[in-house]
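About this split. The held-out portion is used to measure sequence recovery: a designer receives only the structure tokens and must propose an amino acid at every position. Recovery is the fraction of positions where the proposal matches the reference. Here is one held-out target exactly as it appears in the evaluation file.
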């Protein structure tokens, strides 16, 4: 079984998705890891070329801790647009990897780069089996089931501050320290996130978020939350391979 994680910036997968991916890795799944944007704007100190190289190395280190296959970023920060070339490139990646599930950002996250990443990932998954849609690079289509799961937004609210309630909760207590270690690979973001977004200790903020999602579950101390995309064009109506695989580590809300 194969999972493809499609994040926006280096550290987004670590913040909201990595605990679930670790649990899948533990039970034998193959994990693929890609950030569409290269992190070039995640600094107020370094020049572009240097920060891109730094953040690429940090992301590679984090993917290594996960045991995931690392794929290169495709565009600059704030250039994650819903446009043909990027759609074709992400479709090419989906067709190359042929995942059973895709995990990606929320469609109602707080910033447009995240939202566009989710939209592009969904369309690429939808186009996986379309014979007349050419991917970059050109890859043969496939039509097996592919369930798309959306992570919770970083603030656990939509852009209008309305709370987001997950459909599925994954207990990440057993892998929380590994999740912290993955996020800590992104050392360049320690001061930047504090100055730009008020995240004084970004690793502590991640832990607080996981604890808040755990409280929402009513069962777990630390959790990641997920919502399934519509099944239409993707998989069977009742498909839920994440819950099927993780069993008691998952809690599904009606």
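Reference sequence for scoring:
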């Amino acid at each position: 079984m194969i999972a493809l994680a499609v994040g926006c910036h280096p550290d987004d997968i670590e913040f909201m998705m990595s605990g679930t991916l670790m649990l899948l890795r533990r039970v034998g799944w193959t994990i693929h890891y890609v950030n569409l944007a290269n992190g070039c704007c995640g600094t107020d100190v370094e020049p572009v070329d240097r920060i891109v190289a730094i953040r690429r190395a940090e992301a590679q280190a984090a993917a290594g801790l996960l045991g995931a296959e690392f794929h290169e970023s495709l565009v600059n920060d704030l250039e994650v647009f819903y446009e043909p070339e990027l759609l074709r490139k992400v479709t090419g990646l989906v067709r190359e990897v042929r995942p059973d599930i895709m995990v990606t950002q929320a469609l109602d996250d707080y910033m447009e780069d995240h939202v566009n990443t989710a939209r592009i990932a969904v369309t690429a998954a939808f186009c996986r089996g379309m014979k007349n849609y050419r991917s970059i690079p050109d890859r043969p289509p496939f039509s097996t089931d592919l369930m798309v799961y959306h992570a919770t937004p970083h603030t656990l609210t939509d852009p209008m501050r309305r709370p987001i309630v997950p459909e599925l909760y994954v207990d990440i207590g057993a892998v929380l320290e590994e999740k912290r270690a993955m996020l800590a690979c992104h050392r360049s973001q320690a001061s930047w996130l504090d100055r730009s977004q008020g995240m004084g200790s970004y690793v502590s903020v991640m832990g607080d978020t996981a604890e808040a999602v755990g409280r929402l579950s009513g069962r777990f101390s630390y959790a990641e939350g997920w919502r399934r995309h519509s099944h239409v064009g993707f998989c069977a109506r009742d498909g839920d391979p994440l819950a099927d695989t993780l069993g008691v580590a998952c809690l599904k809300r009606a």
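Annotator remark: The radius of gyration is 17 Å.
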